[in-house]
Every structure is written in structure tokens, then in C-alpha cells.
Design a protein that fits this description.
By secondary structure, the chain is an alpha/beta fold. It has 14 helices and 21 strands. It binds S-adenosylmethionine.
Amino acid sequence: MLTDKKKEVLDFVTKYARRRGYSPSIPEIAAGLKRAVGTVHEHLQNLEDAGYLQLNKNQRRGVQIFEATSMVQIPLLGTIVAGQPLTLFDTPTETIAVPANRIPNAGNVYALRVQGESMVEENINDSDIILVRHQSVAENGQKVVALIDNYDTTLKTYYKERNQIRLQPANKNFEPIIVKWGKKDFAIQGVFVDVIRNKKSAPAITPERVAEKTSGKKIVDKKTWRNVSIYLADCLDAFKSIDTNSVDFIATDPPYFLDGMDNEWSDAKLKQKSARAGAIQGLPVGMKFDPEQGKKLEKFFTKVFHEALRVLKPGGFMISFSQGRLFHRLALAAENAGFEIRDMLIWEHNGGQGKAFTQNHFVKKMKIPAHEKEQIIKSLENRKTPQLRPKFEAILLAHKPKEGTFVENWLTWRTGLIQTDFPESQQTTVLNYKKPNSRKLIDHMTIKPIDLMERLIEIFTSPKQTVFDPFMGSGTTGVAALRKNRKFIGFEIEKKYFAIAEKRLKNYEKTG
Ligand SMILES: C[S@@+](CC[C@H](N)C(=O)[O-])C[C@H]1O[C@@H](n2cnc3c(N)ncnc32)[C@H](O)[C@@H]1O
């Protein structure tokens, strides 16, 4: 891309050469433009990389302009990020100047900035710009910009196979994307023509660099050992480092943001609120039944579940705990993201605290004679607010659409069928487990029973498979996964909980 500063250097060299018949030296360009020699040198390097000129390093006047080359302006439409829709600029006013001889028929060519590492082995790197010819058909082996399910856009090598399209990345750490005929919408949005390299972002490709770059941008901490990888990060950032179709099962207990904290979770704020509420955990002060809350929740989880769907293997299950009054929003979010909703499971427990209360306090404040107040209070003797004592938590059971039949999907991915090797009485949608009393030992407000998590993991996975919890809290799902000989990936946004989870998981590995 030709920035103003580079254009200034190019114009200076061009005019100088036209006037005098020979090129300026680098110190002459620096003096003419009042810039440092090093800066000029860097601009010249970039101009050479972009095909505007050639630098003959051993000559004093070694800058050779490709005068005959005319330039064409190509619109830079947006950014292409692996696994996300194309981010188109609102008004694509930016154009890039490219030597015309690099792209015959430039009329239907557009440019996109690349974000991600999935094509590094083809030397297409993060921050490079690709030139794409707008067309809707391609031949096997061509690199295409593909749109899947009207949502995910990706740059991959295209292969049309018997029952499917295979989109092959050029990075051994990434799996191919398989699109079965008729299962998903698929469209080619253009065919790759050329790449304009962003020199700074393209050092030699090493496995370390790929690992470092793909581990996301805002991951505050990451710990990996034997069967565990845990990230201290906002899940939406950390998801970027998990490969597509790589996880066997998602089991999570997400935040519901019930207390007007929007999409934020803060342990300190929660505790403060719950203390003020009179020790009723999970019912913060001033909780309002505002329908906007549910809508916001659905919006947030649609984003989260889009990523969850991407990383799950086809046919893989996701279970998510939920609040009775917000279950529908969570289910909608999963459906918006492309999951199939299979069921509602029930965690039946020993019961929570009753939250219904009488209206006496409000009646006493009414500006009416005392005897009328007494009458009203008497008439409402057995009336309370509509909150029956909770005895269960709803669990959403969703799964990623499978590829082919149950058997075909199982043979390819080992997902989609459940384990039923339990007594018949236990093969129901209701799972009865006591609430954990380990809250005193583990400082987390919403810890789940480990034996319940173990049972869910047994039902939905096989030994050695990977269990993933994007909201891991104190790591209960992880400990259950390790106990059942599974691998675990977890994300947590609060440093304190991340530390608790790390300790619990390490302790388990030490003591078994
Ligand atoms: C309901 S708790 C999970 C508790 C867990 N089941 C346990 O047994 O400890 C939800 C967790 O999600 C974390 N969280 C909230 N927002 C997050 C985000 N955007 N990314 C990652 N973690 C988040 C919270 O800090 C909290 O620990």
C-alpha cells in the first residue's frame, strides 16, 4: 500500500531521475526530503517489495524506477479474519496503488487485509494485503475467499470433492474446513490473485512464531501442562487460539449478568451486592425483571456460541447451565449460532433458599389509616412474591450439526452418540446431585458439584477426549475431566478464580 510518506519518496526519485537522467543517492533523497537516511532506506525497501522500484545495493545511485509501469488503484474493502464474517469498512474509500503489470484486468479486483495465521505456509501472513478477483467459481487448488453459512469468511485453498468441499489451510496447526453438500450454504466470493506483503509482519515462519501469534492477542496468562491448557482471558479473545473442529465436548456454567453488570463479571462487585442483599447469594439488590437484560444476554451468548460451534467437532455436544427465567435466551443464542437444541436436562438439587417475600413492609408505608393497613396485611397473610423455592437448575443440551448419519459422524469424529452404560434409572433427563458444600474450601460463588460434572462428562465423551469450559470459574469441570481421564481446556476472566483453578487442577494431577 502506498502511504503518503512512501509516495513522497517515490515522487522525489521519479522527478529527480527525469530531470537529471540518473537516480539520486540515498543521502540526496534524505537531504531533499529532510528525513533521516535510515527512514528513507526503509521506505525504499518497502517500495521495492511492492514492485515500484529496484534497489541495487552495491551502487551509489542504485535506485531504479520502473517508469514504464503504470499504476492502478484497487479498493481496499475490509479485513478477512479466519472464522469470522468479512469486516467490511463502512465506506471503502481507501485504495491501494498496485503496478498494473501485477494484475491484468484490474476492473473486478478488490483488496483485503489478512488477519490470522491459517495460510502462513503459503507466505500469506497476518497484516498482508491480498488482491482478490471477484468471481463465484474456482478450480481445485485455487485459493479462494469463501463464505460459509452466510457468516464465516475465510481464505483457503479450494478442493471440490465427491460429497463435499474441502477448504485447506496452509498451516499444519489448522484443520481443513469440510463443507458437506446440502448441509451448509457455501459461496465463493473471489479468487486470490496476489499478495502485497507487509514486511514488518512477515519474519521467517517458525513453529514458535505460529504458536505465539495464534495464542490470541489479549491473553493475560496461559498455563499448559500434560492434559490441561488454561487461559486467563476474556473468552472472546481466547477463543481465537482454539482450532476449528478440535474440541469434543463443551460443558459450561456461564455468567448470567443478572445484576445489571452488563456483560461484565466482577467477583468484588458480586460479593458486595450479595452481602447488601442479606446473604441471599445470586439475588443481588434491586434486581429488576427488565426484559432488556435477557435480550442483552442473548446477544452476548450468540457471539460466544458462534465460536463454541466453530471449535466443536461436528456432532459434538455442548451443555450449558442456565437460570430458569433466562433459559430461553440461552437456547435462542445457541440456535442463532447454528447449534441444534436437543433437550433440557435438569440438575435436581437439595434446594436453594426461598426468595419469596411478604408485602407487609410496603403496606406499612402506605399513607392510609392504621386499621386499613392491618386489614390489608391480614388479607395478604399467605401471599408472597412469585418465587417458589428453587429445587433445580436447567441445563441446555445442544449439539453441532453432525456430518451425515449418526454412524458416519461417529466413525469420522467419535462424537454425537451418548454413553448409556449406566443403570436404567440413571438414564433420564433429571440428574439428582447434592449442592457442593465445598464453597467454604473453594472461594467461588457459583461452584458446581464435581460428581454431577463427572457424570455429564461420562455421558457425552469418551476417555482421552477434550472437554472445554469457556467460563471455568474455579475449574470444577476441569477437575471432573481429569478424574475421568479426559483432557481439559478452560478460560477464566478473573485472575483470582484462574489461580484457584490452576491450583485445583495441579493438585489433582499430583494426588490423582
Ligand atoms: C458461574 S461461574 C463458573 C463457576 C464454575 N462452574 C465452578 O464450579 O467454579 C462463571 C465464571 O465465568 C467467568 N467469566 C465471566 N465473564 C467471562 C468472560 N467474558 N470470559 C471468561 N470468563 C468469564 C466468571 O469470572 C466466573 O468465574
